[in-house]
Amino acid sequence: MRKPAWLALVFCAAATIPAQAAIHVWEKQELAFDLARPFANPYKDVTVWVDLRGPNFYKRIYGFWDGGRTFRVRLLATEPGVWRWKSGSTPADAAPSKTGSFTALRWSDEEKRQNPLRRGFLRATPQQHALQFADGTPFFALGDTWWAAGTNRFRWYDDDRERPIGPSAGFKDYVRYRKAQGYNWINLIAAFPNWMTDGSPWRVVMNDPEKTTVRSAWLEFGANSAKNMDNEGGRPFLFPGKVPGYEQMFPDVDRINPEYFRYLDRKIDYLNEQGFVPFIEVSRRDASLCWKKYYQWPDSYARFIQYIWSRYQANSTVLSPIHLDIISETISPAEYSKAIEQVKEKFGLPPFGTLLSANANPSTLENWGDNSWVTLHQIGNMREHNNYWYLTEIFRAAAPRPALNGEPYYSGYTDARSLGDGRGYQYGAPGGTEKDDQFVRSAMYGSFLSGGFAGHVYGAEGIWGADIEDAAPVKMWDAFQWRSGSEMRYLRDFAFAIGTRYRDLQPDADLVSPNKTSVLRGYEGWAYAARTPDKNIFLVYFEKGCPRSQIRGARLNSVYRAEWFDPRAGTWVPAGSLRSSVIGIITLPDFPGDNDWGLRLVSESQAH
What we know:
The protein is of the alpha+beta class. The chain is built from 14 helices and 35 strands.
């Protein structure tokens, strides 16, 4: 298999590093240690680390078991200069103590242009509302939802031959396709421990008093069972498990299978090589009830969190302890907090400052509150435009953090629900239609202007579930080619139309009057707005069906340059100069057409 050029050479755990290619800052390195003696379960019984010292840095970096007698520690240099390390283990005689050193160099400007991840890991901006690289360069996430990316559903080819987006396409082809559309972020779940196409239903509940969920998976179309979520290395954990009657369905989560994760490694490395930041969630919520009931909680789950975090701590990622898309068939957020706190107490947070987040319903703020372990907030798995408000709540929190909508309306999503008065309301639309594209844009621009200034994550039916079955109503490769996905790039154009000042915006839908119709569910008739504190710049988005509106809260008796934004083409339409009234109200002209539109207002004094 070709080794990605982005990665440094792996070096041995010896007193000095053999001569090799230059080592750069923010470039993953790896130390390998052989245990001095066998252990029954090294995953549980042994801990290996190195104490790493370099310019403005001194921390303990923990490793992970990688099969047999091998432990690995992945690390990097955050600044140029000389770096030294010394290893240790528990038990103390588990692995011989080693020392070593290396010198890290800066990347050139051209090398950073080739791959922006060489600018360092993601950080919050000083205002705490958007993202930037460690060197201060802005980062605006444009993501896609590939929860099953680590499995065989996203096929891996060792060669680099380009294959068309279709049944023969592989992981690299999908990455290339999205990269050409401006994407730089992928959502994935590291492990689906209890999912397999095994002849049993996709949802299995025990016949105990608690009706404990064994799994609540996604349907394998045509089989009436759960989707397979294995890869070339097998499954994430070993069998048999300890859940009575389900020993071949729910694995032994205290016995990990490193071979599975080696095949995940190459995809994470490839994403980084291509300039993508993977958002990695360690597991999905439906495994939690059996995990807690039949294994030592929170110890067992904390061990797995640390395993994933230590395995990918030297990759440019955002990490998550749980995919909590629904507070159903799961333990409570507080129970997950127990495991997270145990990781913090025993190992500390990821040593190189990796941001921590979670796909959480309704939001990470609601589930874990201010001043928690969360350093990148999300809302997730809530489809309607009424829910973008949770991003505004995050913006206004006492301890704000950057935020984005990590699982909004999925392209091609259709559903029918009651409004509470017996009336059914159908919302969503078939994928690839003009109506569906419109609804996806509502999620993009409505979420961004509600406070999602970290970026946005797209998703589509067929892709989020990695539907490759013959009986699937939407095939993954067809959904990749829907126009809604290609329109994501224009959101970044809209944000950067005011340069880096988008990071200064403050969301307030009430700046538009009127700003909504009476329809609560759906994706039409609402407006969203954000304004800089000096009132010089407004960005506004109007869903289709909005009435002609006013903008309030402008500078008094001032002239603004107005431009409409076409989110279908990423183009601007001049709307002339508009003057605010003596009380700061701007009356807007008619929309350029009967569709959704963005708007930029810039004070003439600011424009010059």
